[in-house]
Write a structure and sequence with these properties.
Distance between the termini: 12 Å
Order of helices and strands: HHEEEHEHHHEHEEHEEHEHEHEH
CATH architecture of the largest domain: 3-Layer(aba) Sandwich
Largest sheet: 8 strands, mixed
Strand order of the largest sheet: 1-2-4-3-5-12-6-11
CATH class of the largest domain: Alpha Beta
Shape: globular
Helix content: 25-40%
Length: 413
């Protein structure tokens, strides 16, 4: 490393985590801070106040993606980005995504404390709707930034109540003026709790992600016909909810068939209409995702799932169709940045494990347009997307110090 590395202020960093944990608290002590909710708006307001009080610039684009900018000596150069997301699942933890944003903010503060100016600007980014829990698909707004999705398409995504992304942004006052993407960035760093047990079980404080699992998702629509649940003969029923159940079972079977090769498939959300007792559903929607470490296996899983749909339709006397589909995890992470993180960890004496990422992250999309790297830190028993998600400051400090060293080195190039 070219410079003496300033220390992370652990107490200050942990205080930002604690402040976040008090906004949108779930019933079991975690977080229920869905994107663009009132609670998300309050968290964004707090994040912006921290940035402005420290003298950093704040840029908000049309999707609410927020960039906190610490200027560089040569501010014409493309900036180094560090970030993740502040939104959570409906039953989420206090660290998923939040850790990466607060780590970026602490890097800026640590550099200020040490009086270190960097050649390039460093920007800390909070990506809107990483989770996709309210507005599918996940990583929606980093996807628009990277050119994966169209802006108008993203703004028109709806939640279960029919509210669009555009309407939700306006409601909480976070629809910015800046264009989404279309500008040069030097590189992107993201640190995230692993959301799996490998680091925790091995007692290793840092994971360096070399590549993602290739993941695909679908929105599947099932059409049926309303009828009375009492007198309607079984042979004449067109129950969309039953059709959706058949699809869910078929998707689950595919995951089990590929489990020995780390394939996984999930139906995590099912909506039916009118979804009340006494009447057969005329429509249903499923959200499906499937993934594996081998792109060829992921393609095979997709073929299997699609091939099962006509049989599900015939068995249940319904119509079944894929209405929407998306992919993430197609791009590996940058070898030069991976080497930089390795050398930084070696210089600091921090043990690490090289690994693949099984969950989706905004880094997947940004890797398409700029050098990107993803780091993991341990969480207790690998529990995530659960209010019981937990970790400790001492588990996080080694990875944060490595992140600071790597970001500083990149920002000086």
């Amino acid at each position: 490393m070219a410079r003496n590395l300033p220390p992370i202020d652990g107490d200050r960093f942990w205080n930002t985590i604690a402040a976040s944990a008090a906004i949108g608290t779930g019933p079991r002590g975690g977080l229920a801070r869905l994107t663009l909710s009132e609670a998300d708006g309050r968290m964004r307001d707090l994040f912006r106040s921290w940035a402005e009080n420290a003298g950093y610039g704040v840029i908000v684009d049309r999707l609410g993606n927020t960039f906190v900018r610490r200027a560089g000596v040569d501010d014409r150069l493309p900036p180094v980005l560090v970030g993740s997301h502040l939104d959570t699942q409906a039953a989420g933890g206090r660290f998923d995504g939040i850790l990466g944003v607060m780590a970026g903010l602490e890097i800026l503060r640590a550099l200020d404390d040490a009086g270190i100016a960097t050649r390039r600007a460093i920007e800390v980014v909070n990506w809107t709707n990483e989770e996709g829990g309210r507005f599918p698909p996940p990583m929606l707004c980093s996807g628009v930034f990277a050119g994966v999705h169209d802006l108008d398409w993203a703004l028109s995504r709806t939640d279960q109540a029919g509210t669009t992304v555009a309407e939700a942004l306006d409601t909480i006052g976070w629809a910015g003026d800046a264009p989404v993407g279309g500008r040069a960035i030097d590189s992107y760093f993201e640190i995230h709790i692993e959301q799996g047990p490998q680091l925790w079980e091995a007692g290793i404080p840092l994971g360096i992600v070399t590549a993602p699992y290739l993941a695909r998702g679908m929105r599947i629509e099932v059409t049926g016909e309303n009828a009375h649940s009492g007198p309607t003969p079984m042979a004449r029923r067109k129950n969309a909810l039953v059709g959706a159940a058949a699809v869910a079972l078929a998707v689950n079977r595919v995951g089990h068939d590929y489990a020995d090769r780390e394939g996984k498939s999930t139906v995590a959300r099912l909506e039916a209409s009118p979804n009340i007792p006494g009447i057969i559903s005329d429509s249903a929607t499923l959200f499906v995702d499937f993934r594996s470490p081998d792109p060829r296996l992921t393609a095979e899983m997709e073929e299997r799932i699609r091939a099962s749909l006509p049989g599900c339709a015939a068995e249940t006397n319904t119509g079944v169709a894929v209405a929407d589909a998306w992919t993430f995890g197609e791009t590996s992470f940058d070898p030069e940045l991976i080497d930089l993180v390795r050398s930084t960890a070696d210089g600091l004496g921090v043990r690490y494990r090289e690994m693949m990422s099984q969950a989706g992250h905004d880094a997947y999309h940004i890797a398409r347009i700029a050098p990107a790297v993803l780091l993991f830190s341990p969480c207790d028993e690998g529990i995530s997307h659960n209010e019981a998600e937990n970790t400790r400051l001492e588990d996080q400090l080694p990875g944060l110090q490595v992140l600071l060293g790597a970001v500083l080195a990149r920002a000086d190039r």
